Amino acid sequence: MSMRPNFASKLLIVALGGFAYAPAFATTWISTSSTSYITGGNWSAGLPSVGPQLALFVDSATIQHEIDIIGVTAQNASGIQFNSYAGGAGFVFGSSANNSPGFQNRAGGVANGVRNLDENTQTFNVSMTLFSATGTSGSGAAQTFNAAGGNLVFSGNHPSGRATVNNNGGTLTVAGAYDVTIGISGATYGNLTGAGGLIKNGTGTLWLGGSAANTFSGGTTLSAGAIVAGKANALGTGALVASGGTFNAGGLNQSLGTLDLNGSLTLDLGTGANVVSFANSSAMDWGTFSLSIANWTLGSDLIRFGSDSTGLTAAQLALVSFPEYGNLPAQIDANGYILPVPEPGAAALVILGFAGLFIRRRMGC
Known about the structure:
Layout: H1 7-16, E1 26-28, E2 54-58, E3 66-68, E4 75-77, E5 80-83, E6 92-94, E7 103-106, E8 113-116, E9 122-124, E10 128-131, E11 143-146, E12 152-154, E13 165-166, E14 172-175, E15 180-182, E16 192-193, E17 198-200, E18 205-208, E19 220-222, E20 226-229, E21 240-242, E22 246-248, E23 254-255, E24 259-261, E25 265-268, E26 275-278, E27 291-294, E28 302-305, H2 314-317, E29 320-321, E30 330-332, E31 337-340, H3 346-363
Parallel strand pairs: 1-2, 2-5, 3-6, 4-7, 5-8, 6-9, 7-10, 8-11, 9-12, 10-13, 11-14, 12-15, 13-16, 14-17, 15-18, 17-19, 18-20, 19-21, 20-22, 21-24, 22-25, 23-26, 25-27, 26-28, 27-29
Antiparallel strand pairs: 28-31, 30-31
């Protein structure tokens, strides 16, 4: 059954300040046996695509948790939400016929994207494309994947033809205290595409993996929590703006636009030799915020800003530190590579000499 809040309930919502009023209807998955997503009788108020409506999933001991989406028509919904339930199990969406283009999820409403209020992990083995409330692309397609109560996984193992997540020109915000994964390890796809950007809020971790390249071009804003790269160039083709949190490069090569700091950032290089390259960022105002570089290994890891010694200013270099090297500040060489400033003494000079030799070898000099 679906219904709109009456005037009194709207006033109560406003008074409580805890929930936003959403004009869209909701329909709840009620099947206890059938796995068919596209069967109207498996829903309390018909298919979510009719309207479209909020697709609501309420866990229980008897509800069907395996949900099969078949057919070549993408499934519209005005948001997807998983309500809280103690115990139980998560829902898994797939396509047994391997032909579904997945979800066309519309902005707005209670969920404004995908919201997991349940303690269990919800897994999507189908694609997800974001649209505005009226079904268009562009900035109005902005939505949130909110792992408020449990994890969300967009596995990257799905039928071909669409990206794992296509922001469709809107900004994708990842929020919540739990983890969101776009592309599990070894997945066929796992790509995040579109002209929109990515915002990471909340204390949880965003995992970016899979095998297909992330090509989203709107840049990344890291405000809290962590982003962990499970593949090269995980942050697409745009700039990185950080006001907190950690970016873990995963021991893989990462090529980004400029780096701007509106808060302090930890750049964790992870395990394995890698090169993390930023565009010349000397025009960015870092204020007094710091860049802490963790797990940097001499002779193994390289960090570069631009292509020459102008990649960072002297004031910016003073804000860079290497915890494993006594929080030494940074220097930049003629090719844009940064490394710790050596302390006076023969041992430090030897370290710097080895670093210079390693860089020349990498460059083929």
